[in-house]
Structure of Neuralized-like protein 4:
Amino acid sequence: MELSEVVSNAILSAYNGGLLNVNLSSPPAGDGLGSSSTATSPILTSNDALLFHEKCGTLIKLSNNNKTAERRRPLDEFNNGVVMTNRPLRDNEMFEIRIDKLVDKWSGSIEIGVTTHNPNNLEYPATMTNLQSGTIMMSGCGILTNGKGTRREYCEFSLDELQEGDHIGLTRKSNSALHFFINGIDQGVATPLTPPVVYGVVDLYGMAVKVTIVHNNNHTDRLRRNNAILRALSPEGALRRTVPAAQAEPERLLFHPNCGQKAAITHEGRTALRPQYGPWGSNGIEGASATDDFNHGVVLSSRALRDGEVFQVRIDKMVDKWAGSIEIGVTTHNPAYLQLPSTMTNLRSGTWMMTGNGVMHNGTTILDEYGHNLDRLKAGDTVGVVRREDGTLHFFVNGMTQGPAAWNVPPGVYAVVDLYGQAAQATIVDDMEVPPIPEPLPEGNNQVSPSSPSSGAGGSDLRFHQLHGSNAVITNGGRTALRHNCRSEFNDAIVISNRALRDGELFEIVIQKMVDRWSGSIEAGVTAIRPEDLEFPNTMTDIDYDTWMLSGTAIMQDGNTMRNNYGCDLDALGTGARIGMMRTAKGDLHYFINGQDQGAACSGLPPGKEVYAVVDLYGQCVQVSITNATGPMDNSLATSNTATEKSFPLHSPVAGVAHRFHSTCGKNVTLEEDGTRAVRAVGYAHGLVFSTKELKAEEVFEVKVEELDEKWAGSLRLGLTTLVPGEMGPGAGSGPGLPPSLPELRTKTTWMVSSCEVRRDGQLQKMNYGRNLERLGVGSHVGIRRGADDTMHILVDGEDMGPAATGIAKNVWAVLDLYGPVRSVSIVSSTRLEEPEVTQPPSPSSDIGSEGEDDDESEERGLGGQSQMGIMPTVLEFLENHGKNILLSNGNRTATRVASYNQGIVVISQPLVPQLLVQVRIDFLNRQWTSSLVLGVITCPPERLNFPASACALKRAAWLLRGRGVFHNGLKICEKFGPNLDTCPEGTILGLRLDSSGGLHLHVNGVDQGVAVPDVPQPCHALVDLYGQCEQVTIVSPEPGAASGKSAGTQGDMEKADMVDGIKESVCWGPPPAANSLKSCEYHALCSRFQELLLLPEDYFVPPPKRSLCYCESCWKLRGDEAHRRRGEPPREYSLPFGWCRFNLRMNPHLEAGTLTKKWHMAYHGSNVAAVRRVLDRGELGAGTASILSCRPLKGEPGVGFQEPGENCAPPREEQPPPVLLSPSLQYAGAETLASKVQFRDPKSQRTHQAQVAFQVCVRPGSYTHGPPSAALREPPDPHFSPAELEWVTKEKGATLLYALLVRVE
């Protein structure tokens, strides 16, 4: 053994035993964080160390001296995995865990937080978000306080997306703020006020199975100190210390021995290969072929890269089976302590990777069209990476730089190579000199059009100025401008022309690249401010002098909207569109779209003053280039005084008249600018303002925040009121009778939103609605809309927050309260005029108008502005823009995934039409993979969408059905909806349909499963993700949906705490046979006919569509039901009624039925048809045997153990009710000795059948005793349950609540 190894072992042994007083770990928890109490103790004693408490969830197993917690039966159970720390957390103390094991079965994953509950006294819930007091948890990417969501998007990371090896931590600061950490990165303040005494808590929920507490937080520091001690104690250390630093040779770059589980390092650390290729020579290792796996081939450099040092590898060997190839990049993670993921792009922190021809940062694409496609490289090609001193990251392909890929990359990063897909072996190449960085070529769409820019052509000297916004980059000799970090930054990218425009000179640009991440897009205009004098703001519309801009359809001067509904919409333009601007000699500003003049946008530009062209690369717009059309225009616009055919007066745009504020307003409000601007002159209240007219259906009343007064707290309030502003009596003009604030306006019905609360007449109706209005800033747009479906919607910066309230009256006025910090607002919206076709403003879409439209179509025109909403498209097809592994055929009606298991997203090109059923058929499944297709809708334009690897990564404007869950923008909003899509066999036909109110329905083989998502914005497109097993689907001919109005099964918004243990079996509900023309389950129909023969009152049962649910073998397998579930507090198992048909009973409206069904246990009671009516009349189980039906029992007296009350018998007064026998297993409760059989003749087939009945009941915990079965059984009891717990007996009155009537027919 070498001396260095002996010394290393000695140091580690001494450290572990506490004998050597050297702190090799991270500083104590308080060091550097304001704590001095723990700083004097370098090593924590076992009593001080954070461990898991011995008392934990029922399925938790502790090990590793209580530092590791694991959930037992992870493939059968998804909850009851709560663990807590053994002591309260100290101020500034880090509580950090590492994810050791995940399972790919459940949705949802680990949750972590703090609680004030002492673990010694706590009755552990099934999941920690069920705890309604003293608990703060991070779940997904949001924060839940006492089980309710308080912050929907706390950070960019989602705990549900973390992988094995990722770290999660939290700390309570000394100022009471709670911070969470993901892989060591502080995610910011989760909540500012945390109780002083809290315990750390971890919920091993869903996919999370095993975690370990991590005490060494600073691995890099520990490694550096370890190496320093080893060098100091080794014989070579003294010699090395005598060598001057300038003469020391740099350590050679090698691969670190810690590599992916399917990778190996050879040739003294110079070569990395993906494992066991077979007998390829002396370096090959016999075994499985490289074609057996495509990932787990991550390797890192042995040390951090120096600034300007190139790390380059040569591809030695490749295989031709997989899609994708080598990936290269850098990471801040130390390879010695990194739990290597299966592929490096799964790492969510500190990582930049070039993959294909794009660049990803922390698993998110930041550049789509960056450089040479790495997937096309061959053996012998080289790839490299370098971090320069200015923090920019550059990649090289065969020695050629690909340009800057990322900015602000920290120093001390390690090089990373991912031998993914085709790449099988790579070797480090030395002695590459960094070539100079030439001017980068334009990025994005390289297709050349007649007006595309050319680097060497073009007679105009117009370029972009070298001065620009902080996020803008000028390339291609000043002809191209782009916004870097386009997926993390959306503004600060203003560019301006290098000289002033001449009269009649066109400045034209072409959009080359866009991202589908933000709202809003490019803004363009002119400014009289010289570039040298311009202090570039965040957006150009923030400038309040000498600037004219087109934003969307609004013409803005000096930051104020002059007019709306200009002839073009910049937000609707896509890649390849050309935008031009020109000032005429008389001072008019004209815009050109794709060479077409849109008319005079505004007039009065100073004729003798120079103006510069200005472009704001805002939101979705990322890159533009100046076109060859830029230059003088050879037309009459330069000197003519005649208006063009598309110009019209500025003061009266044809598309509408600007909204106005009513003269009646709060006493502190003054109205300016002809009633379009409202200013609160003094104080913080008395700021009510109203619209002049009542709002029409789908009309938006929108304002822009002009001025804030930060000394006040609160937020702008807005809503709808039935109060007529002009009928408020004497003195109403100045509003002396108005209350000081909107919540106090109660003389007429008023709906309002304040902060994130919805109120009606001052009473709280809903919390956590939309974006918090307290976060509005200067320039923010806020609007209100009364929907045609009598709902109130709030819009923030153009984004609809969804329905805030329902049942809104027909005649309502918009009302705003300039309260607290919001001091002034200006109106940016306009009314919609009912004018003839000839007076409508010319626009690209004006040629497709229709004449003689019926009045009953006006509602459809109001929703989305499409008069053809009711027209069925002749042929549906998939869009040409799709995932990179998709191949379209059959006239674009069939989509096939040709490689891998992801990158398979397709979108139907036509938007969904209300009441039109759009269906796809599953053609082929590959059982090699797990999971299956994902179905849903997106509301963003799919033509320019850059599709991620899977639909679950869509974080904007996406509603998806995956497995049995419903997801919105990556967050689960509903569990256990409909059948499990992962279990649908080949041939299954899945459909989506929008009802008339915007609810999205799922159809399975023609059967409506109910509303999955209410109030889906329109227009929207159906999306299918061919993921995992699903490799091919085909569009089935569309069918018009049933125009039956709204579904009764609308699923409301629910917190997770309300859903985990609540009843969520509302899937595959069978419509009543008479109302459904589609094919239904024959067994369900047979059971329904028997239930009708019992002549039971309809009022006892839940009305359709949730009246009944079939549990025959085909139905429960189609839904993917599990055989057993847990219910109640504490939770207890019960079996699902497989083989029976369930008819749901109405709950007593005076009981808290929703609470009982979650907190009470579930059980079954075998009965007979003679007692059903009597039991339903009494509302609970009792004794008696008298018959009310003329039917012949098959056996003798059926009352063994289960004595039902007779029809005309009542129990003696003051007597204890007889015991009621129950069971969590219907296999036992439904045995023939407990649930007698009767014969009946089916009125449809005239065949004789045997039938049984039973009740499904909710049972109050603690009201019953359990024991072994008392009834004589012909067959063995249910083996899933312990015999000692198979039979429950209760004598307490009111201990049971009837839940459903069960029927089985043989």
